[in-house]
Amino acid sequence: MSTQTSMKGKIAIITGASSGIGKACAYxxxxxxxxxxxxxxNLEVLNSIVQDLLLNGHEAIAVRTDVTVEDDCKNLVDEALxxxxxxxxxxxxxxxxxxxxFKDVDLKVIRQLMExxxxxxxxxxxxxxxxxxxxxxxxxxxxxxxxxxGLPGRSGYSASKFALQGFLETLRIENLKNGxxxxxxxPGFTATNVRVSALTADGSPQGVSPRDEKHMMTPQKVARTxxxxxxxxxxxxxxxxxxxxxxxAQRVFPKIIDRILYMFMARExxxxxx
Length: 274
Hints:
The structure is a single chain. By secondary structure, this protein is an alpha/beta fold. It has a single domain, classed as NAD(P)-binding Rossmann-like Domain (Rossmann fold), CATH 3.40.50. Helices cover 46% and strands 12% of the residues. It is built from 8 helices and 7 strands; from the N terminus they run βαβαβαβαβαβαβαα. The chain is globular, with a radius of gyration of 18 Å. The model has no long low-confidence stretch (mean pLDDT 90).
């Protein structure tokens, strides 16, 4: 493996590592030689992933972590340092989604989205930052096209991703002379359980994806793209042509893209717009 594709000897913390993009990143980073600290609330699932990685000759530990709890995030960093002595990559991937009109949504849903998607990244970054500065490492936030412009029916999700991107961009500028790499990764629609567990207006999970997932990005493809971005020290990665076009159109033809997004989301089965 060349130095351009290798993560050999690097220590990576991955939140939301029990499924979807986080799990795929665990296997992708491990295949490139990284040593892993995997975080999620479900310790049983995390341990099964760790055992599989160990059986395949990789190094990893599991740390039960609820990213909405500041002390859990501090403990995650402490456990990484206790085991490996340094941190090179912090992948802030833990996240939840929602599907409801703002006029109908219980405000506890918005608060929960912000706690997981935004404050989870803030807490982990706060405690990992001194060690990432020491290693001249990377902070990576898994965002979304919804972090570049509002997505109807996802007000809390978009708000949390806008906040995440603003935080990471500011962190990047503050550390321009400190060697810290900060990257925002924005996948397109990805075939994970995030839509199944997305919160409805009352905070209950919707339980089924409103979209046909056969033609979506796979978590494995997203993980490969994130790994390439880290190694090339990219700033922002928008992973689909549709996403790139929509971000550009938002700047040039904002009224048109508003209408397109409305129609796009309204076509979902059981759309709240109907």
